[in-house]
Design a protein that fits this description.
Blueprint lengths: L10 E5 L6 E10 L2 E6 L4 E5 L3 E3 H8 L4 H9 L25 E4 L4 E4 L7 E3 L5 E4 L4 H5 L9 E2 L15 H22 L23 H19 L4 E4 L10 E4 L1 H17 L6 H4 L1 H24 L15 H7 L6 E2 L2 E2 H7 L1 H20 L6 H19 L8 H4 L5 H14 L2 H8 L8 H30 L11 E3 L5 E3 L10 H15 L10 H25 L1 H9 L10
Antiparallel strand pairs: 1-2, 1-5, 2-3, 3-4, 6-7, 8-9, 9-10, 11-12, 13-14, 15-16
Length: 573
Amino acid sequence: MPSKGYSVGESVMVKWPGSALWYPAVIMSIEDDEYKVRFEEGTEDEVTAESIRSAASFRRRSQSKSPSRRRSRSRSPARSPSRQRVSRSPGRKTPAKKQTIISQSKSETKVQLTPTRSKRLLATRSTTEVHTYTTRSSTKLGHQILEPVVDIKTGKVPKTVHYEFGGPFGAFFIMVSLPLFIYYLYFTCSKEECSLQLWPAHTCDWRDYFDLEAALLFLGWMGLQAFFYLLPIGSVVKGLPLRNGQRLDYKLNGFFSFILTLILFGGLLYKKYPVAMVYDKFLPLLTTAFIFSIVLSIFLYIKARRAPGHALAPSGNSGNFLYDFFMGHELNPRIGNFDFKVFCELRPGLIGWVMIDLAFVVKVWTDFPENPPWALLLVTFFQMLYVADSLLFEHAILSTMDIIHDGFGFMLVFGDLVWVPFTYTLQARYLADRPSLAVMPDYCLVIVLAFGLIGYYIFRASNSQKNAFRENPYASQFASANVLITASGKRLLVSGWWGWVRHPNYLGDILLALSWSMCCGFGSIIPYFYPIYMLVLLVHRERRDSDHCRQKYGNVWNKYCAQVPYRIIPYVY
């Protein structure tokens, strides 16, 4: 057991974060149970007492006379360092592609490797995947991108023991209430009236809810986006390590698909194709999307029943059919290289959202060519900017909770294909239904534009800072940043936007949502449904994420929360 009686200036042996190797270091300062140390090559880090041992006791262990023990230490991949020092003999250059050479005498270990060589080694005596890197000094200069250390586990995913959303009963309630709510939203905010009503006027003729032309239009849309997704264009990147250590390949060409779709829309408009039919068939398109989401969810659940145990979702493996169907039983359902979750997350729903907005603009401008719908154009601009941003930074979704934690079941399928395109277009539909309504003077729209751009700036700047830190926390831009280090070696940023509030990107999201609704004026509360919903959603997601981080990082997360007390809105929440 490590001694607790360490002092500043003492020479000790420190376990390199994320590895099984120990290196000489000097204690620089002590604060509570954390020690700031400096390794021989100059790297400084913060570690806990469990990662420190006295130099004397370590030497006694390293001088063991057991041949088998020495051989095990010198050859076992499990002992390869997570990040290794560069050691070169005087007057001799190390070849650029030279393999790592580990030799050990009775008293010391010498390591040689090239700074440009990085190998992932799989532990043979533990279940930890160890990544080797160059020195931290090289990483700080941006020469190396860090990958996370992940626990490799084989076998079936354990049963889900913690229910979310109220368990099976809550899942059933959501699956029934959300579709009804979307229809309620459609009828309570109609051309005639847009106000809260207990029982809004609605049609009872099934032909108003479904027609073949709308069904074919929706299926054609899904097929078109699938075709764009499969085109051999765009970058292919690795996702985060899965439970078994595997990293899936993801094709990222969402922005390319978006541009192609806009060009196709412009071509249809040029050829005078009646794109405004989307406005006329909004209700049957909604019904078709709902039916399609049910069919796809059933298919995904059946497919998941035949998936290997390690491929199941940790949040949707309860054994209860209803709950697993809702949460998603399989984590990353695929057929070949076609990933259903990533495809649906950013393609048909998000791009379809913009296409519906544009169809509304065409409808209004065609009917009232002398009266440009400035408010509708501003809403469409905001939402097109938001979608383009999501697709341009498509790689960021690979580290979200939706991808790495949640299974792909009814919850995400319905959200992606029905909820997003048919509720997020509420403001545009409200303005399209009232083309002659002057919601506010035109000069007020300039103020709304500025408000929305501020929200977008906060959203984009904070997300960019987060993504840059995840890719390389040792980059020069974070040289003076305040950072907390967890027991696993993960670094938490406590500077910039992320030292202001815990989720500045959520704050930007809420400001953006509010600006969209402000374009509709203040004549009805219904167009403000989206920012209200986003506030509730993001508060719930923040709570869920906080609980997950507290379980994962323990006291370090509590320390972060103490340093950054506000969750989303400074001085409010």
